[in-house]
Input
Amino acid sequence: MKLEIENVSKTYRGNVEALRSFSLELGPGVLGLLGPNGAGKSTLMRILATITQASAGRVLWNGTDIKHDPDMLRTVLGYLPQDFGIYPNLNAVEFLGYLAAVKGLDAASARQRIGELLELVNLADAARRPLGGFSGGMRQRVGIAQALLNDPELLIVDEPTAGLDPEERVRFRNLLSELSGERIVILSTHIVSDVEAVATDIALIAQGQLIVHGVPEALLAGVNGKVWEVVVPSGELPALRQDHLVSSTAHRNDGVHARVVADAAPRPDARQLEPSLEDAYLATLAAHRQRAAAEAAV
Amino acid sequence: MRARRVVYAIARADFLERVRRYSYFVTLVFAVYLGYAAGTGRISLRLGDYRGVYTSAWIGAMVSLVATTFVSLVGFYIVKNAIDRDRQTRVGEILAATPLTKVPYLLGKFLSNFAVLVSMVVVLALAAVAMQFLAAEDRTFHAWALLSPFLFLALPAMAMTTAMALFFETFSFLRGGVGNVLWFFLWTFGLILPVVTGLSQLDPSGIWIVHGSMVPAARAGIPGYVDSFSLTIADKSVRVATGFHWNGVEWTAGVVTQRLAWTAAAFVLVLCGAWFFDRFDPAKSRRGLRAKPRPERVSPPAVVAPESATARPRAATSSHLTPLASSARHSGVRRLLVAELRLALKGYRWWWYAVAGGLLIAQFAAPLDISRGPLLAFAWLWPILAWSALGTREARFGTEQLLFSCARILPRQFPAAWIAGILVAALTGLGAAVRLALAGQTAGLLAWAAGVLFIPSLALALGVWSGTSKFFEGLYTALWYVGPLNRVPGLDFTGNASGSQAGRYALLYLGVATILVAAAFFRRARQLHGT
Output
């Protein structure tokens, strides 16, 4: 089971480059695709899900170009788009039944699968209610269920935890971890904690380019010994932000506890901290922006 | 002052959003075509077998009547989505959380829509100017004579059309397909209202103002003329009454007041709409939803069901998903067909099924000519909203990405949706078919079968190509009105009006259906190709 993305570019009308020579090779496991808004994550997801085609480059699923035979991938694909709709007059069972039929599942398998999935996403009690009355979080869970209908070998989920309450978010993370064994899962998000919880691999994308690809430990190693905590009066926080990369802040009785990513201690009283993935993500992104700005200046 | 700025801001934003869409370009092309059709005599203003010399006044009146009739009909469908777009894009919810009140909002939308229709009228007016110079029957150009009909006839008619479209949108019941179908009948009613009532004032299109000026002049200027007056899509040649130089409508205070009254009525209608407008309150939309015959208007997050309703003890995930056997992924099309049929027929109120059932039973019980005539005609108008969803449902409800990432959509889901549409036509018209079969009317039965195939094919093609159900709803209603209801041979796709030619027309409709399905297939294939 292998997914190869080879020099994929996508240019939209108006010469807007969403992806630039993006290459990646994936095997079973969970890939956390991280990047800021507008980085090209959703474009990449749509290309991998055969919704749209790359302007250049190719995507191979087990060695076959998906452009030439998209159905070969679609048969084993589960896809949860960032934005999707439902048919409001159908209930969850009918809607999933419809999509199961579209995906070609036989009646008995579909019935069993839908029952299990509704239990899994905690919607069994609401299974017979029209979807039009579902909340955003409940609809998102229907979306998750539909992505798993055909027991996909490639599961692509784009911002899957958007709209989920914390409890459901944890459930979904657990679900992804359990599902990841013998399939490729691509989790696209800008919520670093989601990736931190489940990803076996991380790819960082910015301005349509792959910045980093590796295991989380490698990304963390890059900021090892570079994360500090400093306590400053709240009035000094803007100056601190201007001089350093501040990854988080918390107001306490003694002032603002700021988490700073810097090569050297930002202040003499700075205390070194264990780096988090969020620190690594922000530092890598900041370094990329500096590089890009320097290249643009040249 | 502030209110005026708000109205302007809403109108400007809406107008820019509209004119930057590809569909606006198509709209202008349609206006250019109408101008071309008028210029080349395909649409003509006739006085029996004659027309007057193409003076500025004649051309101005004729082309502005093209605007008040054709643009009124089509323009309604073009602009009837101003509020809906805000609902779909959720911009409405943002606006609803501001101090913005209903009246400025609707006035802004009204002005924007009006501007869109006026731009079409401007295109027609330019075409009229060009037409006079190209026809060159009368080289004297009178700007006022040519342009005043646009000002006094076309603009009030556009205001009325715009107001009607907006008014329909404020009513949850009229917001969707029901409103689209109803508009055609209302538009027809508006044309014949002055004839029925004998009151020329009840004429939103202004045809009778031109009639009142032109007919007396023609009596004096055209020998043997007998009061005939029509604006037609020319089906036979027209002779030029070379001595008849009509000088145009005399815009008396009474006539101008009458037209201003229609403009004022348009504003009143917009204000009335404010009374019914739900201001994007999903609870009110939900109430309206129950009266709707189709799911189209359900805004996904309409009424939010409390999540606590599902609050069972939430254990940590235990994913006991049974792995699927590879053989489980290869079911036939039958299940999908049943699912598509359910999708087509679900979401209606009980009375919808009752009426459909009543029409079916009546087809069995009534005499054959009634059964295959008006009963079949109405039976094939009733499910129009089931057909109009073909090819557009995915876009309407945002399920394209879910569907288009599935395998074998073209060989499975596409034909399943089409066959579901065919089954709806066959089921609702079954009574007439059985009667025709029992009577041994093979040609009639063939015509029936052609109709069964033609309707969903037309819906699918228009839906897939246009991405909206409005196109089919408007066009099919018009075709149904002219063909099956008014029994125009050739246009009656039920075959009832075709007499001995029924078999020939049936083959024609079968051919057209084939082309339509092929066109829809081609377009859907392109969509799936992701280009």
Q: What stands out?
A: The radius of gyration of chain B is 26 Å.
